[in-house]
Structure formats: structure tokens, C-alpha cells
Amino acid sequence: MDHISALMNKAADLAQEVREGRTVIRLSGNLSIACLHDLPNRLDAIEGPVDTIDLSGVDHMDTIGAWVLHRTIKRLDCKITGDKCDAERLIATVGSVDEPVNIRPDHEPPWQRVVGQIGEAVVNSGTTLLGLLGFFGGTLVATWNVIRHPGRFRINAVVQRFEVVGVSALGIIGLMSFLIGIVIAQQGSVQLRQFGMEMLTINLVGRLTFRELGVLMTAIMVAGRSGSAFAAQLGTMKLTEEVDAMRTIGVSPMEALVLPRTLAVVVMMPLLGFYSSIVAIIGGGFLCAVSLDIPPITFVQRLREVVPIHDLWVGLIKAPVFGVIIALAGCFQGMQVKANAEEVGLRTTAAVVQAIFLVIVLDAFFAVFFTWVGWN
Amino acid sequence: MAQEEEISAEEARIEEAVEHNGIAISVRNLRNSFGEQVVHEGLNLDVRKGEILGVVGGSGTGKSVLMRSIIGLQTPDEGEVHVFGESMIGRLDDEALAIRKRWGVLFQGGALFSTLTVAENIEVPIREYYPNIGPKLRDEIAAYKIRMTGLPAEAGPKYPAELSGGMKKRAGLARALALDPDLLFLDEPTAGLDPIGAAAFDDQTRRLQQTLGLTVFLITHDLDTLYSICDRVAVLADRKVTAVGTIDELLATDHPWIQEYFNGPRGRAATAAVAREKDKRR
């Protein structure tokens, strides 16, 4: 009970009275941030003229209380009396640093901002595309340099990347492909059964996985696993000035960082894509055996009849190109990091989005191209 | 309302404890270890109210760990930590809230929130603990805190990435001071600053400490800081506080590390500088 009564005294409060024709505001309690409660609003609501502010009831004051008093004194042009807790000094201290400070950067009107943002996005896309092309050129130059000086080829770095990009991805890509194979076979068989042509499920699974899905799903998975990792690794290295240190020692970051990663993805993509296609076909075969009663032997035999060998080439030709795009997008975005840790996250996201987008755009071009050359 | 009273009752009790004995922080029998490595063992330390206590020690003697133990970021294996008479060990975050409002911490790198402007950074603790403070008053408070810590007015709307090292420290100090704390923790505030900037920062710390009646727990490597602003110095060595006192008192001990620290080439230079300063004033 004692505490509570002590507290009631402490909460800041004000009383307004008129003494000998002069308005006096009597403040009491504790003028500190914890006890102010609604006092600032109540002080703001007071209209002048006020002659004095009486502080004789105030036991304690911090700079926030002093600031509230300072602005009230300034607004009402009054003086203070009854100071017993060094209030004048505190008010003078905060008063000496009273000057307008912007809290946030200036805001533009909305329409201007929208137009500005659109313009910025267009310019950004343009510069990113140009930058990516330039980066591709830089990689080619680095490749040429390494071809001319084979001693500078970093075999260890490349092999290490093989493991990270390829071998470690086998499990997840295998599982994903197996499930995709099952889904395609299952959905296909449901539709084809209506025409009594369940056997065509084998055509569907075989041709679709070799031509498109195997490589495409692998590309998406590699972009998510390795493209993002490249962007984050290189971005962090840029932040910690490792890349700059490399340059000063005379090691080209393009040769030491970008080339091994690109090479690893380019080599691994066809292998992973082929592996993914095979596992997807096994998945499709598994579903055919379980739900369509097509024995595996028949499945494989039929597969050999309906899947032309150029379907395999279509997939294998696309794979390294997708690999180049994924590696370049990841490394390029990583090398663009300049300011802070937050940018690493943004760049990593951008790397994955760009890689997947470009892969799908290019896949469309490839589809048109292969139709044109007659590989239907 | 009932809860508010409860919290305020808590605050009142703390207030009383501070009034009655002059100790702001008391650490008893502290033990900290990371795996096999024991950092502190039987460490005792008292920080008096209203003093600037410098904490020194070689690298790896656990200066920052001691600070983290006091402010509750690190749970010690054993020992007692009291801040304003309240035990800080094993307290829930909610319970320790009343105390947390009463300290400010400046981390080594400033630890400013990178997505907020300097002014918005300062507003975070106010917004968090005192939602009753209106947005306009909050902006004004942030503004005068910025100027009070010696930052130019233009620094307000800037993001931390746009600031120099010294300005980041000042912005961190402004945020630490946002709630007008009684207790200020500074972790190597002058590290990485140029000598002029470091001296200005020391000066600012001293001035703020006197104006606001702060108790300052200051971890430093900077001998000039020790000589110019610290009331007492605590030396961390051999897993505990081996000595506490004014620099003169420390010089009178014959602990080898202390002797080497203050009487090494840098220590002598700082001593000479202080002597020159005193002569000038005379």
C-alpha cells in the first residue's frame, strides 16, 4: 500500500490556478519519461497567457521532462519558479541543442514517386542486363586467359565445386525427380484412360522428362541451391574486402572465384539433368507398374520405341547453357554487393529469381529452335 | 491499470534501493566458461553510483563477457549480479523490464538498426517502452538527443550505412541515452576513432555523465580515455578483477600486468600527456 501511495505522488501532474490576476501552472511529481503519462498533451492544451510555471512540487526531472518544459516555456513565454532539482540547468542544456532535425528522408508526392520508381526499375533492368552481358564477357576473357596460361587453372577449386554443386545435390534432385515422374504418369494416365490409351502414358513420361522436365527441374533446383550460395558467398567476400585483398595480391577474382564456379555448374548440369531424367522415368515406370499394370520390361521396351534419341540430345544441349546462366547470375549478383549485410540477402534473392526467369525464357527459345530444326 | 501499478511499484522499489546504498551494480562470485575454457572465476565487482568505471584487461580476459553477464545477454554458470539492488540472474525478460529501461548500451560497432534512419533508431526504445509519448514529442526527443550527442542535424534522416565510424558511435550513444538511463554501458567507444574524434567522444561522455548524473561502465583499451575521464579503473586479469581503484592506486600495486600496462611506452606517453595538460591548466 505504501508503494502505491508513494507512486501516486510520483506521477507527474499539473494544476492551473489564478493568483493575483496571474495564471500559474503548478507541476508536481516526477518529471521523468516513466512518470510523464499524459502530461505533455495536457500542457499542450493550455492556452496562454500564463505567467509562471511553479516547480516546487517536482522532486525529480530528466532531460525528457526538461524538454517538455522547455517547449512549453518557449510556446507560452513564461518563467519558472520553485526550482529545487536543478531544472534550470537541464532546461538550459536541452534548450542549447534545440534545432530542427529531420527524422526521415524527405517524401515525394505519390505520383512522382511511382513514376520515379518505374523509371528506376527500367534503368535498373537495363543496367543489370548490360552488367550481366559484361560479366559474361569478363568470364570469357578469364577463360581465354586460363587457356593461354593453363598453369593458372585452379583444378582444386573446380573439383571442390563439383562436389558441392553436383554430388551433394544428388539426393534432393533424385527425390524431386522421382516424385515428378510419378505425378506426370499419374495425371497423364487419368486423362488418357478416357480414350483407352493408357499405354501413351509411357510416351508422355519418356519424351517430356528427357526433353523438358529433367533439365528444367534440375536447373531450378541448382539455381536455388548453388546460384543463391554463389551470390551469398561472393557477396560476403565483397563485404569483408576479401575480393579486394585478392586483387591487391594479384589474383583475379574472375579466375579464382567466378570461373571455377561457372565451370562446375556447366559440367554438372548435363550430368544432373540426365540423372534427373532417368530417375523421373523410374518414377513414371514405378507408377505404371503399380497402378496401370504395365510390367517394367514392357515399359522399357516401349520407351525405346517411342523416345527418339534426339530427345536426349535436346535435354543435354540445353543443360550446360542453363548452367552458364545460373552461375553467371549468382556470381554477378554476388560481386555487385557494396554496402551492407542486408544487400547480400537482396542480391541472393535477385540471383535466384533472375536465373530461373532467364532459364525459362531461354527454354522457350530452345523449344522453337528445336522444332525449326525438325527435332520434334 | 493494475498491471501498470505493479510495474510502477517495481520501479519505486528499485528507486528506493538505489537511494539507500550507493552501489549501482554489484557482481559477486561470478563464473563464466565456454566449454573447457573458464573466462571468469570468483569475480567480484562493485560499480558506485555516479562514477565512470573503466574496465581494462588484455584481449580474451572477458571484458565484454562481463558486460554481457551484467546486462543479461549471457547467463553465467554461477554467481550473483545485482543492478540497482535487483538480481539479474535467471529473471524473465518481462520481470527485468523495469531495470532494462534504466540502462543504455553502446555496442562496439554501434549496432544501429540498418533499415532505420538515425533518428528512427533513437525512437525505437521510446516507442517500445513508452507508447504514451506521442509521435510529435517523440520526434522532438530524437532531435535533441541527436544534437546533444554532438551529431550534426543533417545526420537525423541518414541511414547507418551512410555514416562514418565516429558518427555511428555517436548515433549509438544517442540511442543508448534515448530513455535518459541512469546506467550507461560503453563497449570500447573510442576504438577505431581517430585521436581527435576519440578525444571529442571522451569529452562528450564526460559532459553527458555530469549533466545527466550517469553511472558509466566503460570497457576500453584506450589509455587516454582512462586517464582523462575515468573515476576508477577495474583491471581484469587471472579470471577475476585483480584490482580496482584510481590510476594512482593501481600504480601502487605490484601486479606485473598492471605495471606493464601503465608503465609501458604507451602508458608513459598517456601519463606525460595528462601531466602536461595539468600544467597548462595551472
From TrEMBL, chain A:
The keyword Transmembrane helix applies. It comes from the Bacteria. One of its GO terms (cellular component) is ATP-binding cassette (ABC) transporter complex. The chain crosses the membrane at residues 121-144, 164-185, 263-292, 312-332, 352-375. It is found in: Cell inner membrane. Residues 12-82 form the STAS domain. GO terms for molecular function: phospholipid transporter activity. Keywords: Cell inner membrane, Cell membrane, Membrane, Transmembrane, Transmembrane helix. It is a multi-pass membrane protein. The keyword Nucleus does not apply. Could be part of an ABC transporter complex. Belongs to the MlaE permease family. This is ABC transporter permease. It comes from Sphingobium chlorophenolicum.
Automatic annotation (TrEMBL), chain B:
It comes from the Bacteria. This is Methionine ABC transporter ATP-binding protein. GO terms for molecular function: ATP binding; ATP hydrolysis activity. CDD domains: ABC_Org_Solvent_Resistant. SMART domains: AAA (SM00382). Signal peptide: none annotated. It holds the Pfam family ABC_tran. InterPro entries: AAA+_ATPase, ABC_transporter-like_ATP-bd, ABC_transporter-like_CS, P-loop_NTPase. Keywords: ATP-binding, Nucleotide-binding, Transport. Residues 25-263 form the ABC transporter domain. Gene3D superfamilies: P-loop containing nucleotide triphosphate hydrolases.
